[in-house]
C-alpha cells in the first residue's frame, strides 16, 4: 500500500540509472547526487516518519491550510474542474480538495510509480464512487500526455508539499513553464515552504530522533543493498544546514575520516570531512515565488498562509487558453 504522505515525484528509478548516477556523483567535485535516490521503500517509509516529526512543520501546516480553506479553493476551481495532481503519491492532501469540490469533471493524478499510484486510486475510488479518476503514470517533469481538457470547466494543477523546493532554480522555472502551458486557461495551486527563523529550519532537518539522518544515510544503505557497493554507512555523518544567502537547506553526507567507496571495481577516495551533497530544499518568500512564477507566465492570485507565516499555498493564474 502507498504511504500516506508518499514521496513526491521521486520513486521507481531504474537500477541502472542509480548505478550510472552514483558513479557520476562520486567522480565529480563537489560530489552531488539527485534527491530522487532517497525514495526506495525504506526511504519512503522514513520520509513518512519525517512528516509526523514534531520538528517537521511543513506537512501538518499545509494540511491545516487545506482543511481551513478548501471551500475557497474549490470555489476558485469552479464546477466541472479537471484537477491534475503533479507527483500524486498517496493522494492524502488532494482528498481535502476533492471533498470540497462541486461536481468535478475528473481527477488526474500524475506519478512515476505505477503500482503505488494505481493502489492509491483504487482506495480513492472506493470513497468517491462517482469521481472520474484518470491516473497518468509518467515523470511529470518531462513531456507527458494528459487526458483531453474538459469542454466546460477549467484545468487546475495541484503541486503540494513544497516539492518544488527540491528542484534547482532552473528546474523550478522549467517545471513552471511547462505547467503554465499545460494549464492554459486554468490555474496552479502550489504549496511552498517559506523563509523563516533559521533555528526552526535547522531543527526541521536535524530532528532529535535522527529520522532525517537515517533518511539521508539511506542513499548509502541503498547503494550497499541494491548495487553491492562496498562502503561503511557509519563512516558518514548526516549534515544539514541553512544556507541563508541562497535561502535553502543543504543536506550532505560527510565523511568521518579517510575512507573508500568501492562500486563495480572502481574505488572512490573520501578525505576526512569530504561530502556527498544529497538535497537542496529551497525556501521562498511569497513575493519571490510569485516573481518566479510570473517569469513562467503565471499571474499571482490568492495566497493562504498560517498565522506564523511558515508555509503558503499560492493560487497562480495560468495564461489564457
Ligand atoms: C520532499 N521534500 C519537500 C522534503 C523537504 O523538506 O525538502 C524532503 C525532506 N528532506 C529532508 N526532510 C524532508
Automatic annotation (TrEMBL):
Residues 20-317 form the Histidine-specific methyltransferase SAM-dependent domain. GO terms for biological process: methylation. GO terms for molecular function: methyltransferase activity. InterPro entries: EgtD, EgtD_Methyltrsf_superfamily, MeTrfase_dom, MeTrfase_EgtD-like, SAM-dependent_MTases_sf. Keywords: Methyltransferase, Transferase. It comes from the Bacteria. Pfam families: Methyltransf_33. NCBIfam families: egtD_ergothio. PANTHER family: ERGOTHIONEINE BIOSYNTHESIS PROTEIN 1 (PTHR43397). This is Dimethylhistidine N-methyltransferase. It comes from Roseateles asaccharophilus. The lineage of its organism: Bacteria, Pseudomonadati, Pseudomonadota, Betaproteobacteria, Burkholderiales.
Amino acid at each position: 500500500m502507498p504511504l500516506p504522505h508518499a514521496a513526491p515525484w521521486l520513486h521507481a528509478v531504474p537500477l541502472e540509472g542509480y548505478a550510472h548516477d552514483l558513479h557520476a556523483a562520486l567522480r565529480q567535485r563537489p560530489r552531488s547526487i539527485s534527491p530522487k535516490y532517497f525514495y526506495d521503500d525504506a526511504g519512503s517509509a522514513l520520509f513518512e516518519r519525517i512528516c509526523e516529526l514534531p520538528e517537521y512543520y511543513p506537512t501538518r501546516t499545509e494540511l491545516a491550510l487545506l482543511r481551513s480553506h478548501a471551500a475557497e479553493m474549490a470555489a476558485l476551481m469552479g464546477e466541472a474542474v479537471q484537477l491534475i495532481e503533479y507527483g500524486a503519491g498517496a493522494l492524502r492532501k488532494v482528498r481535502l480538495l476533492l471533498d470540497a469540490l462541486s461536481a468535478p469533471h475528473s481527477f488526474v493524478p500524475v506519478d512515476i510509480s505505477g503500482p503505488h499510484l494505481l493502489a492509491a486510486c483504487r482506495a480513492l475510488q472506493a470513497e468517491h464512487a462517482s469521481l472520474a479518476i484518470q491516473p497518468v503514470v509518467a515523470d511529470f517533469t518531462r513531456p507527458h500526455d494528459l487526458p483531453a481538457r474538459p469542454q466546460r470547466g477549467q484545468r487546475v494543477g495541484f503541486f503540494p508539499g513544497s516539492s518544488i523546493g527540491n528542484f534547482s532554480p532552473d528546474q523550478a522555472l522549467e517545471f513552471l513553464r511547462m505547467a503554465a502551458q499545460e494549464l492554459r486557461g486554468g490555474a496552479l495551486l502550489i504549496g511552498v515552504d517559506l523563509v523563516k527563523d533559521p533555528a526552526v529550519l535547522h531543527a526541521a532537518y536535524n530532528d532529535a530522533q535522527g529520522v532525517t539522518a537515517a533518511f539521508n544515510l539511506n542513499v548509502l544503505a541503498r547503494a550497499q543493498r541494491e548495487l553491492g557497493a562496498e562502503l561503511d554507512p557509519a563512516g558518514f555523518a548526516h549534515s544539514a544546514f541553512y544556507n541563508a544567502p541562497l535561502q535553502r537547506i543543504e543536506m550532505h553526507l560527510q565523511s568521518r575520516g579517510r575512507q573508500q567507496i568501492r562500486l563495480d571495481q572502481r574505488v572512490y577516495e573520501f578525505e576526512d570531512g569530504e561530502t556527498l551533497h544529497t538535497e537542496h530544499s529551497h525556501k521562498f518568500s511569497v513575493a519571490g515565488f510569485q516573481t518566479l512564477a510570473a517569469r513562467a507566465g503565471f499571474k499571482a492570485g490568492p495566497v493562504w498562509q498560517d498565522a506564523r507565516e511558515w508555509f503558503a499555498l499560492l493560487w497562480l493564474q495560468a495564461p489564457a487558453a
